[in-house]
């Protein structure tokens, strides 16, 4: 099946990382899934994704020193494939893997996803575990020089029939569990100078073997990501820091022409609500309310996937209002034409037009003080004259004056204006 046919729109859902780090439990996944189904599923939020190291035993045993315990104990099967830690995911016991948890998530009307690391577990290579259906063993397909810079769990996989057989067996196992979504790490940009690799895109063959990706992606490889992946990260891990939000405008400018049905450059997770519990720094997001709305507006007008990192069991009404505005979420439609109209160090303007001609203009104040931001109707391709408009976050209605849409914005704030005009 064409990968674009089954994933035509950017995915929306919840991911465990921002709140629970490497140590999320089955109980926490289930409780967050229940809130997602009850409060956010009607607005399109449908994925529940268990992030990194679900296979690690006691992953936070030395969290004061390591995020990823060097050569810690991992749970895996006889064919070198990682399996959920049964202490944290008790329903996985007896070789059932994520099957029971995926079944529960599906029973709520949701879809189930997992994070994986590129490669084959190092411990599997050291133990020379067999590859399902092959005479070769894990050590014969492992590339010891192709390793992740920040995580000690995996070796890269050789570009050979046995290596492909390993990845095929891995994906067959996940399919048997009922996995709908895979977030694969350390693959878009390995940052490696190893003689075993091709530099920062040394995992090119593994992208093809897996037929997916994440980031920070290399713009020169955009065609390759689009051919083999539905989404790819365009940034390092994104957190609740205004400097990172502001920097995302330059990244979106770089990638704006590469969004299409089934192909989504990814701005990374939304650090909203209550986060940081597993990192030992539980807190409400450090972004101001204006910064949160600016972030959400940019992600939507750009057409990025939307993945929440919050503890949904503590989701407050104000944060929920950012996630349930149907007219803002409609901007994710990949058939819309979208572009950055203007960007300086102090402001940015984006435009988004539906196939029917409905135009939205997003005005952003990137400066540290109140600022008036304006865009002419001519810049937006709209005939001059009086054009009625509506701010989609507040519902405020007004008319464009002097042939322009204008808004007085607080520091780091935005306005999302829908102009009503004939096509």
Explained architecture:
This protein is an alpha/beta fold. It starts with a helix and ends with a strand. Mean pLDDT is 89; it is low at 192-199. It contains 13 helices and 20 strands. Strand 10 and strand 11 (283-284) form a beta hairpin. A six-stranded antiparallel beta sheet has the order 13-14-15-20-17-18, covered by helices on one side. The protein has a five-stranded parallel beta sheet with strand order 7-3-2-1-12. Helices cover 26% and strands 22% of the residues. It has helices spanning 3-6, 17-20, 26-40, 99-107, 122-127, 138-141, 161-177, 204-210, 222-228, 242-255, 289-302, 317-323, 326-329, and strands spanning 12-15, 47-50, 111-117, 120-121, 142-147, 154-157, 181-185, 231-233, 264-266, 274-275, 283-284, 306-308, 337-343, 347-353, 359-365, 371-376, 388-391, 397-399, 404-409, 414-419.
């Amino acid at each position: 099946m064409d990968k674009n046919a089954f994933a035509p729109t950017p995915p929306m859902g919840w991911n465990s990382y921002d709140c629970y780090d490497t140590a999320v439990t089955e109980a926490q996944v289930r409780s967050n899934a229940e809130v997602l189904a009850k409060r956010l599923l009607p607005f399109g939020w449908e994925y529940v994704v268990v992030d990194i190291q679900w296979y690690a035993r006691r992953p936070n045993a030395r969290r004061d020193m390591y995020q990823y315990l060097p050569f810690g104990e991992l749970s895996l099967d006889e064919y070198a494939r990682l399996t959920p830690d049964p202490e944290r995911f008790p329903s996985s016991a007896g070789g059932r893997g994520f099957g029971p948890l995926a079944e529960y998530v599906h029973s709520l009307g949701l879809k189930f996803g997992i994070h994986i690391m590129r490669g084959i577990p190092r411990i599997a290579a050291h133990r020379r575990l067999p590859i399902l259906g092959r005479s070769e063993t894990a050590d014969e397909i492992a590339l010891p020089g192709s390793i992740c810079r920040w995580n000690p769990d995996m070796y890269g996989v050789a570009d050979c029939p046995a290596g492909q057989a390993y990845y095929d067996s891995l994906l067959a196992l996940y399919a048997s569990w009922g996995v709908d979504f895979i977030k694969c790490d350390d693959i878009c940009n390995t940052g490696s100078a190893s003689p075993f690799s091709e530099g920062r895109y040394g995992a090119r063959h593994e992208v093809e073997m897996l037929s997916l990706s994440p980031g920070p992606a290399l713009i020169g490889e955009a065609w390759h990501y689009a051919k083999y992946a539905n989404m790819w990260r365009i940034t390092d891990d994104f957190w609740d820091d205004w400097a990172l939000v502001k920097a995302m405008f330059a990244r979106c400018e770089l990638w704006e022409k590469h969004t299409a049905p089934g192909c989504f450059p990814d701005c990374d997770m939304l650090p909203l609500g209550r986060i940081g519990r597993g990192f030992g720094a539980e807190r409400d997001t450090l972004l101001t309310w204006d910064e949160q709305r600016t972030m959400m507006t940019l992600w939507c007008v750009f057409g990025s996937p939307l993945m929440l990192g919050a503890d949904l069991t503590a989701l407050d009404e104000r944060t929920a209002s950012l996630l349930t505005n149907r007219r803002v979420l409609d901007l994710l439609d990949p058939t819309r034409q979208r572009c950055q109209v203007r960007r300086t160090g102090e402001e940015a303007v984006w435009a988004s037009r539906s196939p029917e001609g409905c135009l939205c203009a997003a005005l952003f104040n990137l400066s540290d003080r109140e600022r008036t931001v304006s865009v002419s109707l001519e810049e937006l391709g709209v005939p001059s004259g009086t054009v009625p408009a509506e701010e989609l976050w507040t519902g405020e209605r007004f008319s464009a004056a002097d042939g322009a849409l204008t808004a007085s914005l607080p520091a780091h704030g935005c306005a999302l204006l829908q102009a009503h005009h004939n096509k």
